[in-house]
Amino acid sequence: MQEIADSLGVTKVTVFEHVEALIKKGALVREANKSRSLSIADDAELPSDSADRQLHNDGPIPMPLQFPLVGRIAAGRPIEKCAQDETLRLEELFGPRRGQTNAMFALQVDGWSMRDEGIFDGDYVIVERRETARNGERVVALLPGGETTLKTFFKERDGRIRLQPANPDFEPIIVDSCEIQGVVMGVMRRY
Fold this sequence. Notes:
globular; Arc Repressor Mutant, subunit A; 19% helix; alpha+beta
């Protein structure tokens, strides 16, 4: 469990909770009183298996993580129409930057504290797993009380940390320390 936690950059407790949930769902099997005995259940359906089966049975085709990028659209003054033949690849847009190996994850936003940054309740934020942040970056922070929050990070001159909301209805959170769990790389919204 510790090796998995170290590899993923999470706590051993988090790994244990996820493994237990997968055992309860029947995706993993563990032999009692035996170390390193986790294995994938014989009847577990893996995502790649499901996609292969769908393709070979003329079932629905999995949605690609790329879309044709056919041009630009004005949201102010109209612009001249110009055909474009490119592809928008979400892996390139939200995946780790070249030379980086940090894992990416998504969270669904619950609340309006980041409204003025264009991050709304129900949106999804794409987060790069990191333990450090620069001033002005939007972060997922674990507070000393065990709660997590999405705010803009600022290290103050006195050494304390200010987690600044982007909505005047919310007060900044000032703490002596917090654990940065990741930095927001993008926002996705579905209408």
